[in-house]
């Protein structure tokens, strides 16, 4: 049943990563700032509006961004800082309504239907939230207000930068149908090409295509999904709990790596990050996955399911290095990633005393999680939280350092937008 008033909000922080860097460093304010992997193979994660004037945008190769805007400040991403600022913003949103659904570090849906008496109707609540976020954090937010999540998201995109756009009840299709079809979720370059073959360029043109024709062209699930969205048939509620499917870390290297020792050290480094994020999220993993992309862009994944769930770096790196042993790295590795899959509640982790004196690997392949090991890794978490991810790490990382450039390092799960 359609809502009688526009009470779903989508808030999007403008140029978030770049804005955080400008707030942290006054010398960057008013200057073009480009955040991303700094190596030749790096990718732009965010660009300030001063940089966008020169055509720089997210997902652009960093080498191309340097040519387009050579005088910009180029900054490596600091995901811990972004996470901390994001948590501050989400706390502000929850002070208005408990119905907040974070989508990424820099965006969230809110349902303000139940707080009309205290904060006014949706447009008033949206304006108040924008002002509150700016006052408390210095960040600029754009907000879309509508009767569905689809329209709220589209409205916030069109409100950028620094705007608020309301889609009033009764005007939904008049707002939606003139927009280009690629504005819809799920319409990428391949789908757009297929739709153009059907003579579809706008959402309104898509709306008049019969569902069977879309199913025949795009497949059952995708065809029906787009057929519904083109009619604003979107009944999804704002969900305060979103299932975390995986947590991972991956990096693209400046040069293809072939040395197995270098790659093994990278696996250790990534496993440390993944384990820390698991513990921070209160999760443990049953399955460790290794992702390898070669110089020719061929990509493979290998995984192994553990006999017991774990949130310890030692267990994760043991499994990931075993998976790496079975991969022929001679062609050269362009990208490497370690991720934790099949997540469970972290309280399910069994802390057992190690057998013998070493507490080495169990028959199942993972190390027994002795209390001393857990205490050590939790202590390391505290140091890294205060001084940064690279403050401490295994001694093995001291060998062969310096080959890591263009780090992605994005956590997969809530606030990431998903995996690659």
Describe the structure.
This protein is α+β, with helices and mostly antiparallel strands. Helix content is 37%, strand content 20%. It has three domains: 177 residues, Reverse transcriptase/Diguanylate cyclase domain (Alpha-Beta Plaits, 2-Layer Sandwich), CATH 3.30.70.270; 50 residues, Orthogonal Bundle (DNA polymerase, domain 1); 153 residues, DNA polymerase, Y-family, little finger domain (Dna Ligase, domain 1). The strands form three sheets. The protein has a five-stranded mixed β-sheet with strand order 5-6-1-7-8. The chain has a four-stranded antiparallel β-sheet with strand order 9-12-10-11, covered by helices on one side. α11 crosses α12 and α13 runs antiparallel to α14.
Order of helices and strands: EHEEHHEHEEHHEHEHHHHHEHEEHEH
Reading off the top of the CATH hierarchy, the class of the largest domain is best stated as: Alpha Beta
Strand order of the largest sheet: 5-6-1-7-8
Uncertain regions spanning at least 5 consecutive residues: 350-369, 397-420
Describe the structure in brief:
The protein is α+β, with helices and mostly antiparallel strands. 37% of the residues lie in helices and 20% in strands.
